[in-house]
Amino acid sequence: MKIAPLHIGIIMDGNGRWAENRNLPRTAGHKQGITTVKRIIKEAIRLGIPYLTLYVFSTENWKRTEKEVGFLMKLIVFHMRTEASFYQTNRIKVKHAGDMSGLPEEVRKEIEKSIENTRNNEAITVTLAINYGGRDEIIRSVNKWITAKGPDTGPFSEEAMQMNLDNNDVPDPDLIIRTAGEQRMSNFLLWESAYSEYYFTETLWPDFTDEDLSKAIESYRGRERKFGGVQ
């Protein structure tokens, strides 16, 4: 029997379109997206998925309007503060991926607090990719290695890259889901997703259900993963 994925990454696309379809401000879509996040995390726990990475805010999202970016930063702070009990009750360990130094201080402090407060939780590890870009992570990984080892330490290796990624203790994603019909990587986990399976759905993120998650997992279970070899 095919096994379920250990690690699922989700590109949560379609909040703005969900709101526009209902003649609502884009901010309403982002709020509804948070509700979906909580539901899907609980369903992943029920299904026994140990790792989940959510693409919350990319390095490219700073190009959006100042109003929308400001709202998203405030929403992240509000969520981390008000949902502390959600993470504890459901035994969720929070991790962060991305350039923490590029975030507003208030956002950074709330993320760091959540990471510290949930570090002993074991039901699921949820990585929040905030101010994250795959290219940026690769560059930061190389720079960490140079800073630690110096420029004259010999050739850079895959092992060195892996050890200097944002979360080197999290396995590579087996399955990456993208909602809202787009079929591109959008700079998400570029190094880690070298052999990930992709699942695309037309469903907008706020409408994504437990059943949609199960469909994606069933699609994954039906695939042959060869990792460049022959089976």
Overall description:
This protein has 231 residues and is α/β, with parallel strands linked by helices. It has one domain: Undecaprenyl pyrophosphate synthetase (3-Layer(aba) Sandwich), CATH 3.40.1180. It is 43% helix and 16% strand. The chain has eight helices and six strands; from the N terminus they run βααβααβαβααββα. Strands 3-4-2-1-5-6 form a six-stranded parallel sheet, with helices on both faces. The protein is globular and about 60 Å long. The chain starts with 6 loop residues before the first strand and ends in a 10-residue tail after the last helix. The model has no long low-confidence stretch (mean pLDDT 94).
Task: Quickly list its features.
231 residues, globular, Undecaprenyl pyrophosphate synthetase, alpha/beta, 43% helix, 6 strands, 8 helices, single chain
What's the layout of helices and strands?
Layout: E1 7-11, H1 15-21, H2 26-47, E2 51-58, H3 66-82, H4 84-89, E3 92-97, H5 105-117, E4 124-132, H6 134-149, H7 158-163, E5 175-178, E6 197-200, H8 210-221
Parallel strand pairs: 1-2, 1-5, 2-4, 3-4, 5-6
Helix pairs in contact: 1-2, 2-3, 3-5
The helix-and-strand class reads alpha/beta
Ends: how far apart?
A: 16 Å
β-strand percent reads 15-25%
Number of spatially distinct domains: 1
Specify the CATH architecture.
Answer: 3-Layer(aba) Sandwich
- Stretches where pLDDT is under 50 for at least 5 consecutive residues are none
Can you summarize this structure?
The protein is α/β, with parallel strands linked by helices and 231 residues long.
